[in-house]
Amino acid sequence: MFGRSRPVAFNPYGSRRSRWRMPRWLVLLLLGTLAGAAGVIVVQERYLPPRLSADASVKLSNAFDRAEAERLRLKGELATSTQQLEATRAERQALTDELGTSRATVGQLRDDVSSVVASLPPDSRGGSIEVRAGRFAAKAGMLTYDVVLTRERAAGKPMAGVMQLVVAGEGARGADTTASLKPVALSIGSHQVVRGSLPLPEGFRPRQATIQVLDRSGGKLLGMRVILVK
User: Fold this and answer.
1) What is the block-wise mean pLDDT of the chain (230 residues), using blocks of 10 residues?
2) Which residues neighbour 198 within 8 Å (Cβ) at sequence distance 6 or greater?
3) How many domains, the chain?
4) For the chain, which terminus, N or C, has the lower number of CB atoms within 10 Å?
């Protein structure tokens, strides 16, 4: 009670010291951020492919642009080829339809010709090859002819032969004469219409033509008929 007394310091602002401490939640947030960043770096360095440099990135971008341009070009070519293929298919179908129609028309015409030939008067001379009809016209030094031939017992393959035209008329000097024209090759089935023209001798004016059907040039006579020239 009577011991030594100690001096007492006077502090008008109080005796407490102000100390600032970082909040725990902020510390935990910073630590978590650092740990996450470190984890990302570790994963990138250890498990992921290496990152590209700026030059490699530019090259990769250019390569991608070229590949995309090539893809678009090939896509356009594919579209063009597809259109061409569709057009070709349509054209082919049209040609197929046209061919079918043409065959039907040819068949009908063949039947019509057979009917017309059957209605022609028979050849009075007879023979294995009959000359059923003929028409001749002379113009500009040419003899135009249309001859209808029929064959008996034509069940087999067509028979080969020649048609020889012997023309009688007036020659260049005014005298009556005859001229044998170039033989015309034949292949006769049940019937054949022979159509064409042959040159006449210079200055020759024909009056009539003798049609001779032979098995070969200068061979056996199979049929014959004389017809006037118009």
Assistant:
1) 53 55 79 78 68 77 89 91 91 86 73 66 78 92 93 78 95 91 91 92 94 91 92
2) 142, 143, 145, 165, 181, 182, 184
3) 1
4) N
Which domain range does residue 212 map to? 129-228
Burial class (CB in 10 A: 0-12, 13-18, 19+), 143: buried
Q: Residue 213, exposed/middle/buried by CB under 10 A (0-12, 13-18, 19+)? A: buried
205: closest CA among 109, 110, 141, 122?
141
Q: Is residue 156 part of a domain?
A: yes
Residue 178 tokens, joined: 């005859």
Q: Are strands 184-188 and 191-199 parallel, antiparallel or unpaired?
A: unpaired
Domain presence at residue 207: yes
Q: Let me know if residue 154 belongs to a domain.
A: yes
19 exposed, middle or buried (CB, 10 Å; 0-12, 13-18, 19+)? exposed
DSSP 131: E
Domain membership flag for residue 192: yes
Indicate left, alpha or beta for 211 from its phi (over 0: left) and psi (-120 to 50: alpha).
Answer: beta
What does the alpha-carbon distance between residue 126 and residue 194 come to, in Å, rounded to a whole number? 19
Torsion sign, CA atoms 180, 186, 190, 194: negative
CATH number, position 181: 2.60.40
SS3 for 114? helix
Q: Is 189 helix (H, G, I), strand (E, B) or coil?
A: coil
Query: What is the model's pLDDT at position 32?
Result: 81
